[in-house]
Amino acid sequence: MILCDMTQRFIQSTENSIQSANSQSANSQSANSYDANCRHLSMSMCMPQMTVEQIEAQIAQIKQDCQAQGLRFTALREQVYRLILLAAHPIGAYELLDLLQSASEKVVAPPTVYRSLEFLLRHGLVHQLNSSKAFFACSQPTDRHVAAFLVCRCCGEVQEFSHPSIQTMLTEVEQSTNFATQSSIIELSGVCQRCQ
Predict the structure, then answer these.
(1) Got the DSSP string for 78-142?
(2) Share of the chain above pLDDT 90, in %
């Protein structure tokens, strides 16, 4: 019961912090990088958000998967993952750290947050954009896949596009060049359907 109350307080505090950060981000987005081609200015209008119930179901599934694989899904990893799921836009490590600090009575050390992010990246739960170094939740965390990320320069929306042809293309490039890929991130920058 105590854990449930603590989790609820953390979720509420996190949601409030993220709503505040999203409104600040939307305000700075509209003030600093207005594009005349955009039909709207707020990033949160573009980004699909999960409900608290969907987030809790997702986290429960991830915990189960981690346990089955003998991996530790620590409380901090869970909190970082929850923040990324709650965010209405790709979120940076320092923004995550600020949100964790505001929701916790303890001091959260940056290296522990980075280790949590590395775990989430390594196990395919989140992606990191090369262009902004921001993190966002994988749309298919239980399915290993290669994806391309469509990043809207107007609203900041990130869409994950996965198709077998992407993997086929990368495999052909590796074979024809005898190159051993260690990581690949395909980002396409442009204007999303809503902003056109």
Answers:
(1) HHHHHHHHH-SS-B-HHHHHHHHHHH-SSPPPHHHHHHHHHHHHHTTSEEE-TTT--EEE-S-TT
(2) 51
Give the model confidence (pLDDT) of 78-131 as tens digits.
Answer: 999 999 999 888 999 999 999 999 988 888 899 999 999 999 999 999 999 998
Q: What is the CATH number of domain 2-29+39-190?
A: 1.10.10.10
Helix (H, G, I), strand (E, B) or coil at 163: coil
Q: Which of 152, 153, 132, 40 is nearest to 90 (CA)?
A: 132
The two three-digit tokens of residue 144, written as one number: 């290993």
CA 163 vs. chain centroid, Å, equals 20
Task: For residue 125, give the nearest of 26, 39, 174, 55 by alpha carbon.
Answer: 55
pLDDT digits (tens, 9 = 90+) for 20-34: 544 544 444 433 333
Torsion of CA 152, 157, 163, 168, to 10 degrees: 50
| Sign of torsion over alpha carbons 152, 157, 161, 166 | positive
- The answer to whether the beta carbons of residues 189 and 153 sit under 8 Å apart is yes
Tokens of 150: 């469509």
Model confidence band, residue 48 (pLDDT cutoffs 50, 70, 90) = low
